[in-house]
Amino acid sequence: MTDITSLSNSKLERPETLTSLAQKRLEQLIFNGALVPGEKVKEAVIASQIGFSRGPVREACSALVGEGLLVSIPQRGVFVRTFTNSEISDLYDIRGHLGLMVGKLAAETKGHDHISELSTLLKRMKASVEEDEETSYFRLTIRFNDSFLTAAGNSELTKIYRRITRSIRLYRMEHLHLARKAAERNHWLKASFQASINQREQFLNALKKRDGNLAGALLRRHAEDSRQRTQELVARSGDVSIEKHLKP
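Now predict its structure.
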């Protein structure tokens, strides 16, 4: 006979809706560089690419507008969002301060499951860099962040922190696209990946020691170092803005 108590305590996942699946596919197109910042999101084309009808794609677009990855312009349509240098600077300020809290909560949480998961993800990130798997590396960084955010145990903090890091990544995608033909693009990527891995390794060690203050300080320093690397990328791309695509 089935134990009703055990059923109530188990993690029962709701089946994903067509809209949520379409949203995931659309996010993949954005963060894989298939849709670049400033580019118009054509529902019919996207629906054909990901194998959905236009309805779920339209709803997915609305959801991503709400999350700040897309922007809707009346009588023109929906575009992949661009960010100004000032907006990104403000987001880095917030990310640094939130990092203090996130690191402390993640280090002081009970259990060790996240430690094992983070260690595995870090090894895979290193392998991705060695194999020049840029897309795989970015996907793993998202999972790494999600793991320690889950460990922090604050759902609202997780939403804010995730939105900030995704916005910063979208801004970087814009300038990586502009620097695509530059010889130093790959050099910048490898240097950035290696610095990021080293900092995550230090952060993981702080979590293992359950040193909340150190973990928080390392996340804040990681944000500041990320800001500096982003500024270097912008300089390499010539600081060319593609916001003009959004203007009438």
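The radius of gyration is 19 Å.
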